[in-house]
Write a structure and sequence with these properties.
By secondary structure, the protein is of the alpha+beta class. Helix content is 25%, strand content 32%. Helix 2 (17-25) crosses helix 6 (124-133). It is globular, with a radius of gyration of 22 Å. The two termini are 41 Å apart.
Length: 381
């Protein structure tokens, strides 16, 4: 624990003594005694292998690495393949400590502030908040009742009794309200009205906003008129989407893709999109109702980045042929992507913290380029 705190402080991620003390005091292995790590087994199948933080130094140290530890798999997709391995998709995890520490620093808490955490998960982040503020000021909610029960037990075992509840975190913590800080360790496509309503004027909301092609961490201040305004943070990271079902993520319904229309030259490459997070974020501003996927051609084995829109339009740029795009449906999809690319380059490739985010009292949201005010209105999702 102390070594983790020292590592985070030496890296400049923790700069507040009180947060260093919290990380040194809270035993991560107590909250994450088991987790899953991805590997390829002897049969060539990609599986999640269960690991345990046993008491010997080697296995105990594994729980304190600066990595995200997957703690639960979607039961609708999980299939056990041997004694300690499963296939499937992760639905819960313990976030890598450096990201947690950076977010907690960005939250700028101080003594006496009431905090709401959306996404209790393992309870480790809840315990850090308790260690910093005292458990009577900490509220946390999670959609999974089993996770909440386990977290409550583990928190009690190390001396913390925060206010815990089970429910849809997008509805906040209705029994309480009047929060000075709200921190979400799940993503949402928009700031829920309940968070703003349950925040005091002057409160800070810190969350991962999901905008389709990309999203990111935003830090917003709530004013007297129920507006939440701020910016994307220098801290980068993403979280699993908030969900209404305790165990299963809904599968997205995608339209039939338009037939292939044309292949033509382009200046925007797959490598550009893959390498630059702030470019992907800008593409999300320009192209609402669009997602980014990796496409594998079964015939040629070619891997591409593909943008696909809700109306069936798509555009694909392969890694192997860097300067061509193939598209189906409207050609405007890729033209807009190229326009965003040119805009980003002419302004010196700005990083994500050059962009603001605002939610009006009526729920309308927009983003803007802070230096010159260029604005994009976000489509409600």
């Amino acid at each position: 624990m102390t070594q983790l705190a020292d590592t985070l402080r030496s890296a400049g991620i923790i700069h507040t003594p009180q947060w260093a003390d919290a990380f040194a005091a809270v035993p991560r292995h107590h909250f994450v005694p088991t987790w899953f790590e991805q590997e390829t087994n002897a049969k060539g199948i990609t599986v999640w292998r269960q690991q345990r933080a046993r008491t010997d130094d080697k296995h105990l140290a594994a729980a304190y690495r600066d990595v995200t530890l997957v703690t639960a798999l979607d039961p609708s997709t999980a299939e056990q393949v041997d004694d300690t391995a499963w296939t499937g998709f992760p639905i819960s995890s313990s976030t890598l400590p450096s990201l947690m520490a950076a977010m907690l620093e960005d939250l700028t808490v101080r003594k006496g502030l009431r905090v709401l955490e959306i996404g209790t998960g393992t309870g480790y982040n809840t315990a850090l908040l308790c260690a910093r503020l005292g458990d009577r000021l900490v509220h946390s909610i999670d959609v999974d009742p089993d996770l909440v029960d386990i977290a409550r037990t583990r928190l009690h075992q190390v001396g913390y009794s925060p206010h815990l509840a089970t429910g849809d975190g997008r509805k906040g913590f209705p029994e309480a309200g009047g929060f000075d800080r709200i921190i979400a360790t799940c993503s949402a496509p928009a700031i829920p009205e309940a968070w703003v309503e349950q925040a005091r004027p002057g409160a800070i909301i810190l969350t991962d906003i999901a905008l389709g092609i990309a999203g990111g961490l935003i830090r917003l201040g709530v004013d007297d008129h129920r507006r939440a305004v701020g910016h994307f943070t220098a801290t980068t990271g993403s979280f699993m989407a908030a969900r209404t079902d305790a165990h299963v993520y809904p599968q997205p319904q995608r339209p039939e893709r338009a037939p292939e229309a044309e292949t033509r030259p382009t200046a925007l490459t797959a490598a550009d999109i893959q390498a630059h997070y702030s470019l992907r974020l800008l593409l999300a501003f320009h192209l609402p109702d669009t997602e980014l996927v990796y496409h594998l051609d079964d015939d040629t084995g070619t891997t591409s980045i593909q943008l696909q829109r809700g109306d069936g339009a798509w555009a694909r740029v392969p890694f192997s042929d860097a300067r061509t795009v193939t598209y189906g449906g409207s050609p405007d999809l890729w033209r807009q992507a190229e326009a965003a690319w040119r805009w980003w380059n002419t302004r010196g490739r700005p990083a994500q913290d050059n962009f603001g985010y605002g939610r009006e009292a009526n729920g309308d949201a927009s983003v803007w380029y802070i230096p010159d005010g260029t604005r994009w209105h976000l489509t409600p999702r």
